[in-house]
Amino acid sequence: MDLTRRSLAVGALGVAGAVAAPFAVMPAFADHRSDLVAAARRSLQQLLSEEPRSRFFDRHCRAVLVFPNVLKAGFFFGGETGNGVLFGPHGGAPEGFFNLTGGSWGLQIGGQDFAYALFFMTNHSLEYLHRVAGFSVGTGPSIVVINAGAGAEADTTTITHDVYAFPYNQKGLMADLTLQGTKITPIHPS
Predict the structure, then answer these.
(1) Which of 26, 16, 84, 55 is nearest to 164 (CA)?
(2) For residues 170 and 69, is the Cβ–Cβ distance under 8 A?
(3) Are strands 143-145 and 94-120 parallel, antiparallel or unpaired?
(4) Which of 111, 101, 100, 102 has the alpha carbon at shortest distance from 75?
(5) From start to end of the chain, where are the E strands?
(6) Do residues 100 and 183 touch, judged by C-beta distance below 8 A?
(7) Residue 138 to residues 129, 143, 144, 163: CA-CA distances in angstroms?
(8) C-alpha dihedral over 152, 157, 161, 166, to 10 degrees?
(9) What would the pLDDT profile of 2-55 be if each residue is shown by its tens digit?
(10) For residue 148, is it within any domain?
């Protein structure tokens, strides 16, 4: 093969590679998202089957944001992170992907893996999530965390907050977890 043909062949392969490269990445990206959706659906079903109060919020919410695996760890300085899926009402179609991050300071040693489900009860809270491209907890919509020790019962007359959050793991609702200092931001395709 002479130099001209070789150059043309290499050039054609380069163009074909450049055209095909984005498509080669898309299945991996789609696989990651589909794995996250599947994990979030399993996690939400676990919460709904084990925590009766969550079923009421699921029936009346505008959307639910599920973080199936949040890792919280620290040694005096602490942090937490996890990715989640925003589902339409009643665990409907995925409407977006979000990241949860947070930090804290104080006496803390160790780590834990848990899940969060945030039930958006009002259109205002859901619009806020999208309008400001996420939010820092403590600013914007009012959020109530329902822990293991909380004795709150819910009905349509007692829902007064925008978002209700349930921290849980494989053993049920967790105690003493807050969302204070947490930021929730959208994950955009890259």
Answers:
(1) 55
(2) no
(3) unpaired
(4) 111
(5) 63-87, 94-120, 135-136, 143-145, 163-169, 172-173, 182-186
(6) yes
(7) 13, 8, 11, 12
(8) 40
(9) 544 444 343 433 333 333 333 333 334 445 889 999 999 999 999 999 998 899
(10) yes
Domain membership of residue 90 (yes or no) is yes
Q: Which two tokens stand for residue 33?
A: 């998202």
Rounded Cα–Cα distance for residues 83 and 69 (Å): 7
pTM of the model: 0.73
CA separation for the pair 118, 164 (Å, rounded): 6
Q: Is 14 inside any structural domain?
A: no
User: For residue 10, is it within any domain?
Assistant: no
- Residue at 69: amino acid letter: N
Q: How many distinct structural domains can be found in the chain?
A: 1
